[in-house]
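User: Before I run my own analysis I want an independent prediction to cross-check against. Here's the chain; please return only the structure tokens and, at the end, one sentence I can use as a sanity check.
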Amino acid sequence: MEDWNEENTLLPIRLYEEKENLWNPKNKDYKKTNLKLDSWDQIGEAMGITGEICKIKMVSVLLSNRREKAKERNSQGTGKGNKLIKCNIQTI
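Assistant: Structure tokens:
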């Protein structure tokens, strides 16, 4: 899957949310590396790509989301001249 349009970016996010062992530290399988690799492979298979590429893309999306949230948070200061920056990325 070479075309990473909005729809193709949202699909791995939805699949990622379903795999709690990838993101929830309270999940009993969170620290099990082999199960995490299996989960990434399952997401990748659903996307028609490798699990490794899917993981790299997801990490990129998560970092972008954090960066945009930080910009929005930092723009809400009380000083003069601060412009409010609104984030276009949906909350993950």
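Sanity check: The chain has a mean pLDDT of 83.
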